[in-house]
Amino acid sequence: MSLRIAFIGTGQMARNHARAIHSLGGRATIVGVTDRLPDRAEEFAAFAGGRTYPSIRTLLDAGPDIVHVCTPPPAHFETAHAALDAGAHVYVEKPFALTMTDATRLLEMAERRGRRVCAGHQLLFDGAFRTLVARANAIGELVQADSHFAFRPSGSSMTRAGARVLADQLVDVLPHPLYTLIAVLERFGPPGAAVEIDWARGGPDELHASLRAGDIVGRLSVSLRARPIASSLALSGTRGALTCDFVRSIVVGAGNPGEAALEKVLNPMIEGAQLVSRTALSVGRRVATGVSYPGLAELIDVFYGAVERGDPSPLSPRHLLSVTRVFEDLVSRIDDSVGQRQAGRVGQAGQASQTGQAPPEPVIVVTGARGFLGGAVARALHGSSQGAAAPVRVRGIGRAADPDDPHVHEWVVADLSRGISADALSGADVVVHAAAETAGDFAAHERNTIAATRHLLQSMREAGVTRLVLVSSLSVLRPPRTPWERQTELTPRPDDPSPYGAYTWGKSLQEALVERDAPSFGIAVRIVRPGALVDAENPSLPGLMGRHLFGRWHLGLGHARLPIAVCDVRRCAEAIAWCATRFDEAPPVVNLFDPEVATRGAFIRSLRARGWSGRIVWVPISAIALGITAARTAISLANRRLPTRLAAWAVLKPRRYDSRVASRVLAACR
């Protein structure tokens, strides 16, 4: 009889768990899921199987054997404790617990109920880590272990993100390099020796620490700034060294002392050959198996076996407590470096200010104020009000707040896809709607672009806010019918935008929704359609123009003389801020791009003027479109389904735009 599996929390990591469970071949069945976002739970249930439940309590009443806790970390303890209390075994995503108190209580509850507990320490079951541990005796007595993790933060740019935002990212990635290091120190240190912190220094974007178990030193380095992106664990012993590369899931090292003359000459060659050959094999395995998280399926398999046989969990209570103790200490050091959150800066959804009354300055609400463009808009609004007779007060709306952002005067924490109270918009003169889905599928765009906009319009009507600046996209314009067509603000949207991808589909329907509903709500609208946004501080090719390949080399679509519509994120934000503060002067619609950078070659020259040293390999757009279509077709047929339609050529082919309105707006905002 297969194990009955339930999920609490249905984000991206839960999907990886579900794929791992499905790979076990019927050994376990997903029977139920719940999430604070019902739409996301329904979407996950359709993907993974099982039925949705309206609450954790109703899910647990259904009697699952094992519950996977994939909620945000602050909810791990409460959720796991409830599952254990209901008699279920529990798999908790990392971090297992935020404090020693929570970890101890969970393990005590598990012991009282006779249940098994596991945590998301899947790298310990990666084949490369197991190889490293198995070969460790060959390098003699272990002297030192070095755990290095370099990560690129998602979302906000490093140069724009506040200290709290960066610190949260750092804490989120910390468990992986920490638990692998502690596992090695526990295994090779003196029996029963506790892992202690000798020294640690933490900031919002970096953490360095020295740990010790007996005479073995463990050095930990976690950075959001260091490059290249890496995850490795290197062991140094009295007779040699070995390195586990978790990115490639391989082990490299000659495993000899390197003292003889021949060893000094040959060791780099041996390690280079290992790196090339083992990386090629690793890439081949991942392509063939589709595994994106090595060790995850293996850990789940071992944990399920322990549940079935009544064996101990694959992760001992001692290990979980040791990791939690060190984790809690290191996180406190990171938090100390960031400082205390500014008291009273963060409002809850539906609370527009601390007093509940509108401030005397004009209030401009920016949705998505923590995002790449939304953050730049808040900064532009803040800058445009300096020295003005009526300074602008910026109110940011987002799923989380950034109290360190000096350009946002107050925050409202809310998820627009679930709705927002009219009180959150109280006293606002203008709403700049910059929040939208950027990378999800059609369901995600329906939820986070279309439904979110519908909820915002309804709240604006209830709050009596009558001005909206909608940030849309140039991609909503129907493809040109001739190579010489010059598209304008009057160019219509396609009748059916779905063949042009989920992003264009969502933005097109968003515009149509606003055009239909806003007038009946008494809301005046200005629509800004930015072209491809680029960042002068982090120059790179926009997606419609090319992709980074390797080192200095980039793949370019088309050739240098073809047109491209780009806009620096700062200039775009200044134009949006101008439309918000000069609403009556702003045009109803503006296709926003930089007229001075009209071709791909001109854009490359502008990058080089900023110090960019990349090289371009130009490839015909028709060849890329054909390749995309062929690849999508092959993948769909391999999965025994018909490919969905994607008009790749229409999406990628260059467009020419009339620049008169964009030039006027950019000149005015300067």
Structure description:
This protein is α/β, with parallel strands linked by helices and 670 residues long. Among the domains are: 3-119, Rossmann fold (3-Layer(aba) Sandwich); 124-338, Dihydrodipicolinate Reductase, domain 2 (2-Layer Sandwich). The protein is 39% helix and 21% strand. It has 19 helices and 28 strands. An 8-stranded parallel β-sheet has the order 14-17-16-15-18-19-21-26, sandwiched between helices. Strands 8-9-10-7-11-12-13 form a 7-stranded mixed β-sheet. Strand 1 (3-8), helix 1 (12-22) and strand 2 (28-34) form a beta-alpha-beta unit. Helix 1 (12-22) packs across helix 10 (296-309), helix 7 (163-173) packs antiparallel against helix 11 (317-338) and helix 13 (442-463) runs parallel beside helix 14 (502-517). The protein starts with a strand and ends with a helix. 45% of the residues are buried. The model is unreliable at 340-356 (pLDDT under 50).
Label the CATH architecture of one domain.
2-Layer Sandwich
CATH-assigned homologous superfamily of one domain = Dihydrodipicolinate Reductase, domain 2
Q: Tally the helices: what do you get?
A: 19
Q: What are the low-pLDDT stretches, counting only 5+ consecutive residues below 50?
A: 340-356
The helical percent reads 25-40%
Describe the largest sheet: 8 strands, parallel
Q: Can you count the beta strands?
A: 28
Strand order of the largest sheet: 14-17-16-15-18-19-21-26
What is Rg? 27 Å
Name of the level-1 CATH class of one domain:
Alpha Beta
